[in-house]
Specification:
5-stranded parallel β-sheet; 14 strands; Arc Repressor Mutant, subunit A; Rossmann fold; 2 domains; alpha/beta
Amino acid sequence: MPKVLLVEDDPQISKSLKMSLSFSGFDVSVAENIADGWDHASKNIFDILLLDVNLPDGSGLDLCKKVRAMGQNVPILFLSARTDEAIVVEGMNLGAEDYIRKPFGTEELKVRMNKAMKRADPEKNVVAYGPLKLSLEKRTVSLHEQPITLGKREFDILTILAKKAGEVVSREQILGLLEPNSELYDRTIDSHMSHLRRKMRDAGKDEIQILPVYGVGYRLLWKQVT
């Protein structure tokens, strides 16, 4: 189920779009302003972003800049009633896949969304969270473009955490997502996690943190530098 972030301050539009997209099989999260949109985008991994241009606390263009600066290559579509060419050009130059003028039909939007996600398909092999990037095909990890050497299990565990960045992932979930029939136990996971946390700490000076949640599991968090 593709995950969508919709940043739209008009409650009628956001409610209607969420209902229509959800009915078509999309998992839609809604934010009403840039601050909430950034909170969602920086803590979660989405398949596509739908951004209004005029928002109560600024421009959706600024949110697009922040997302791109974070290293995310997620497809971005602007939805706006503004038709001036300069805004359209700026949005596209910032890396947006498309600019859709309001009013628009929901079926047209879905077609454009699916095309944008299809074009971005190669990026499915990359998981990015802040300055952290994992190439699933090459099985490489980098932090601020600097490589980090991980063992096989460490890479697999970090991938699981990065795909659910910001969420608590239980030991049972980790065990279930690793290779079946392998002899892994809670204490083995904890041992791998200890080595992984040390390597991440050495590489990022605690910017990317793997936090234990007592009695449950672990959570990957990006400690943003302000």
